[in-house]
Automatic annotation (TrEMBL):
It comes from Curtobacterium citreum. SMART domains: ANTAR (SM01012), GAF (SM00065). InterPro entries: ANTAR (IPR005561), CheY-like_superfamily (IPR011006), GAF (IPR003018), GAF-like_dom_sf (IPR029016), GAF_ANTAR (IPR012074), WH-like_DNA-bd_sf (IPR036388). Gene3D superfamilies: 3.30.450.40, Winged helix-like DNA-binding domain superfamily/Winged helix DNA-binding domain (1.10.10.10). Keywords: Kinase, Transcription, Transcription regulation, Transferase. Residues 169-230 form the ANTAR domain. Pfam families: ANTAR, GAF_2. This is GAF and ANTAR domain-containing protein.
Length: 246
């Protein structure tokens, strides 16, 4: 590991562990986490699913529209590596399209169409509690190298602990409410993406990049920016060039 990459990995851990003290926004924390993972590791897209109050998975954050759609596809079909990782509480490797086709034909077809050849799904798990799954998509076939796999697992564990850290003996309902708020926030973000895509004639990835850039530059929560856009309290100017990977 290069010195620069090691420093950035340490920064990612510091950011994730910073949520262990005080209040924080779950969606913002998870989006930052997957942005860091995509930048640091040998992956091309990342997404996270969380279980709602009915224990049904929903896509909460993603680094691209393609990875988000693959998540939705699995939820509609009720199967796929991300769903299996959540249901079993175990890491699921799918190293190539051939293996995918043997296990989930439709998922393999859509993954190939999206340009992904392999996926690595990690449960958001702490002891017996499984909150969802983090899913790392790769254009190239093959598994993550061991170093990246261990680091990704560690970051996922920190995120899980961050979500659960406020739970005590009588706080299970509060934790579920917090997760539901995260899912509700995602709805607001998706609405804002659609609004910007329509009004600015850009794709959804570019629309998300506009929201994210404004939130970061002004120190605002992503969900607050999204609601301001859809309520027409904020007019975002289209950047000359948007990084659609973030």
């Amino acid at each position: 590991m290069t010195e620069d990459r090691e420093r950035r990995l340490i920064d990612a851990f510091l950011t994730a562990t910073g949520t262990l003290v005080g209040d924080y926004d779950v969606v913002e924390m998870l989006q930052t986490l997957i942005d860091d993972i995509q930048e640091l590791f040998d992956v091309d897209a990342v997404g996270i699913m969380l279980a709602n109050q009915q224990q049904e998975l929903e896509v909460v954050v993603s680094t691209s529209e393609a990875s988000a759609l693959l998540g939705v596809l699995q939820l509609e079909a009720g199967e796929g590596p991300c769903v299996e990782s959540y249901e079993t509480g175990r890491t699921v490797w799918v190293a190539d399209l051939e293996d995918m086709r043997r296990r989930w034909a439709r998922f393999a077809e859509e993954s190939e169409r999206a340009g992904f050849a392999s996926v690595h799904s990690v449960p958001l798990r702490s002891r017996e509690a499984v909150l969802g799954s983090m899913n790392l998509f790769r254009i190239e076939p093959g598994r993550l190298n061991e170093q990246d796999a261990v680091a990704a697992r560690a970051l996922t564990d920190v995120a899980t602990i961050s979500i659960l850290q406020q739970r005590d003996a009588d706080q299970a309902a509060r934790t579920q409410q917090q997760l539901q708020q995260a899912l509700d926030s995602r709805v607001a973000i998706e609405q804002a993406k659609g609004f910007l895509a329509h009004t600015h004639r850009v794709d959804l990835d570019t629309a998300f990049a506009m929201l994210r850039a404004h939130a970061r530059s002004h120190g605002l929560l992503l969900q607050d920016v999204a609601r301001a856009v859809t309520e027409r309290r904020l007019d975002l100017a289209q950047p000359e060039s948007a990084d659609t990977r973030r």
